[in-house]
Amino acid sequence: MKAALIPIHPIQALLLITLASFPAMALAGSTGVKEPEPVSQTEASINAEGLPVETIKLRQETGYERESVYVGPVEAGRRASLGFEISGGLIGLQVDEGDRVKVGDLLAELDTQRLDAARVEATASLEEARVSLALTEATLGRVESALAIRGVSQQELDEARQARDTALATLTRFKAALKRIEVDLSKSRLRAPFSGIIVKRWVDEGQVIATGTPVLDLQEEGTHEVRIALANELADRMAIGQSVDLEIQGQTQIAKVKAVLPVRDRRGRTVDVLFNLDTSAHVRPGDLAELRLTLRTDTSGSWVPLSALTETVRGLWSVYTLDDQGQAQRQVVDILYQDGEQAYVRGHIVDGLTIVADGVHRIVPGQRLQALPNVQTAQQGD
């Protein structure tokens, strides 16, 4: 008896064939060996001749120069907070902020009614003292005449002289009282001590002003100076009348040294130097002025580009040199100063030493290197 054939769909047949061939493919893949990739000609050249690097020759220096910037405020030549020397009610302000005044101009005044009354009283007392003095002098003259004919005693003469002296002292006292009132009356008017501009008004009319209370701030126009704190050794380099360039609001202004103050600041241990600005300088008090000074530090070392430095363990810095076999050698250096893209370093450096100038992140000690041509010499300002 023949077995019956079961019909198979074409898709089912394809699936059976694929499953049957999978073990064979897996076996072939597990036993196969991947062929190594071919080495390029560039890599072969690098391995043979060394990694191409840019190099630079170091030049031994005796020191380096650095530019330091010192900042100080612009100040008015003269500025004063004006107030009354006596107390009283403010009855008038003749100026306001922004007004320009001349020396001697009336700025403000106090109520003087009490002082006016006191002056009248003092004037009357002074006249009374004059009359009293005249009477005592006349009495003294008569007593002296009577004494000549023994009409009075010596005691009466002494009393007459004492009365005259007392009247004279009283007259002097009343003169001083009237003078004091007149001085107070003059102090009740506030006048400009110098020409300038009113920059601040502190009070208004009607206020009772105590002695010394600021009323107006007056600032001199046209004259400005700059105060800059310098280290003692730098201040000693400044000579009276010396011209310097100051940068103020992006503009270079010529100034002259006015004074080097003989006092050292307790906190910063600095010395204030005053500079006079030209009267034509368009500046304002409160602007900041910059003084640039070039200082030289005498210590041996060399300039290297920052790209030649690499950080090592414990925060140390180093450069890579090339030995006679063209191999990279690490050399530790101390960074003394940084100027832009360069650094002034100190270490076991000899004049003409060749170091790697760039790409140090690709290098390890002992690696073979190939120096590219056109080697330059490092110096400040490159």
From TrEMBL:
Q: Which Gene Ontology cellular component terms are annotated?
A: efflux pump complex
* Swiss-Prot/TrEMBL keywords: Coiled coil, Signal
Leader peptide range in chain numbering: 1-26
Q: Known InterPro entries for this protein?
A: MdtA-like_BSH, RND_pump_MFP
| Domain of life, source organism | Bacteria
Query: What family is it from?
Result: Belongs to the membrane fusion protein (MFP) (TC 8.A.1) family.
Which PANTHER family does the record cross-reference, listed alphabetically? BLL4320 PROTEIN (PTHR30469:SF11), MULTIDRUG RESISTANCE PROTEIN MDTA (PTHR30469)
Gene3D superfamilies named among the record's database cross-references: 2.40.30.170, 2.40.420.20, 2.40.50.100, Helix hairpin bin
Any GO molecular function: efflux transmembrane transporter activity
Q: Lineage of the source organism?
A: Bacteria, Pseudomonadati, Pseudomonadota, Gammaproteobacteria, Pseudomonadales
Q: What is this protein called?
A: Membrane-fusion protein
- Using the record's annotation, list all stretches that form the Multidrug resistance protein MdtA-like barrel-sandwich hybrid domain: 79-214
